[in-house]
Amino acid sequence: MAKLPKEQPVVLIMAGGKGERFWPRSRTNSPKQLQKVYSNKTLLKETIDRALTVTSMDRIFIGTNANLKIEILKKDPNFPSNNFIIEPEGKNTAPIIALSALHFQKKFGNPNLIVLSADAFIDPVKEFTNTIKQALFETEHGLVLLGVKPNRPEVGYGYISAGKPTDVGYQVKAFFEKPDFKTALKYIKKKNFYWNPGIFLFRVETILSEFEKHAPSILQALKNGFPFKNFGDLKNAFALLPSEAIDTAIMEKSTRIRMVEATFQWDDVGSWMSLERILPGDGFKNHHQGKEVYYHKAKGNISSVQKDLVAFLGVDDLIVVEEPDVLFVSSRDGIGEIKSMLASMRKNKVLQKYLD
């Protein structure tokens, strides 16, 4: 096995999403990654603290937009103000990873780069640290991603099929997009199938080489102007780029990819439904975040409420979220329509202030 590099890795935290499925806590100007969802820290601060177990603060960077940079520094004024990779517009993950790789190549040379999402639940942190350190051994051979052993037939995640063992992981046989429920049931019965949590590791020169090979239109548009003299030039370059995920642009096409199994619990904290997997519950599958709660002939409810007491009487499968200006109530069956509801609300000028 190769020796672990002495140079600390660089970490890129992806924090540009809108988080609409966590409305009303998540708003346009203060999305879920800037909110406290399952602890007394924001999701972004949880991710920064996690990253600090594998590198130093000066090597942690946040990928986001200009408006959110301001909000992030308001929430965490101690974070280095120069450690941001700013995207002029959201174009999914491939363009900002390519831009970041060019930036890190210029600044650091050819370091290991770890790409994390700002909105994941990971526990225990010690196992995250150990898994990352193990995965860094594999970056000398190409691209690396983590795989999470599934514990339920989840239709909201992509899946990875692992192949032959490597030093500390596996070769990747294939990627599978989000399945239907019947297919997900088949996947979780296979010992070599894993969830794809979107945690990537690679040498900067390796990922740039893979962009050159598999997504040259993205890389060349950025290389032609890099380093950009002003934000306007970067904006013009971004306008030419396709909106594409790193998974489809690079990972699913590369022949130099390995997977390391994660030894920690992971959840993407994608919607209010994820709280039932993170928060403790009672014997009737009720999950509450807040002060006092009382259930009488009620089951399957999820609540995040600020009042001193919330009581549920004879109701099942409700989601109740309280913010100072909004009370949101949904059925479990209806929660999937939240984005559609918000799009409809945006057409009403009176309701605009509750969205932004």
TrEMBL record:
<dbReference type="Pfam" id="PF22640">
    <property type="entry name" value="ManC_GMP_beta-helix"/>
</dbReference>
<dbReference type="InterPro" id="IPR005835">
    <property type="entry name" value="NTP_transferase_dom"/>
</dbReference>
<feature type="domain" description="Nucleotidyl transferase">
    <location>
        <begin position="11"/>
        <end position="277"/>
    </location>
</feature>
<dbReference type="GO" id="GO:0009298">
    <property type="term" value="P:GDP-mannose biosynthetic process"/>
</dbReference>
<comment type="similarity">
    <text>Belongs to the mannose-6-phosphate isomerase type 2 family.</text>
</comment>
<dbReference type="GO" id="GO:0004475">
    <property type="term" value="F:mannose-1-phosphate guanylyltransferase (GTP) activity"/>
</dbReference>
<keyword id="KW-0342">GTP-binding</keyword>
<keyword id="KW-0548">Nucleotidyltransferase</keyword>
<dbReference type="InterPro" id="IPR049577">
    <property type="entry name" value="GMPP_N"/>
</dbReference>
<dbReference type="Pfam" id="PF00483">
    <property type="entry name" value="NTP_transferase"/>
</dbReference>
<feature type="domain" description="MannoseP isomerase/GMP-like beta-helix">
    <location>
        <begin position="299"/>
        <end position="342"/>
    </location>
</feature>
<protein>
    <recommendedName>
        <fullName>mannose-1-phosphate guanylyltransferase</fullName>
        <ecNumber>2.7.7.13</ecNumber>
    </recommendedName>
</protein>
<dbReference type="GO" id="GO:0005525">
    <property type="term" value="F:GTP binding"/>
</dbReference>
<dbReference type="InterPro" id="IPR054566">
    <property type="entry name" value="ManC/GMP-like_b-helix"/>
</dbReference>
<dbReference type="InterPro" id="IPR051161">
    <property type="entry name" value="Mannose-6P_isomerase_type2"/>
</dbReference>
<keyword id="KW-0808">Transferase</keyword>
<dbReference type="InterPro" id="IPR029044">
    <property type="entry name" value="Nucleotide-diphossugar_trans"/>
</dbReference>
<keyword id="KW-0547">Nucleotide-binding</keyword>
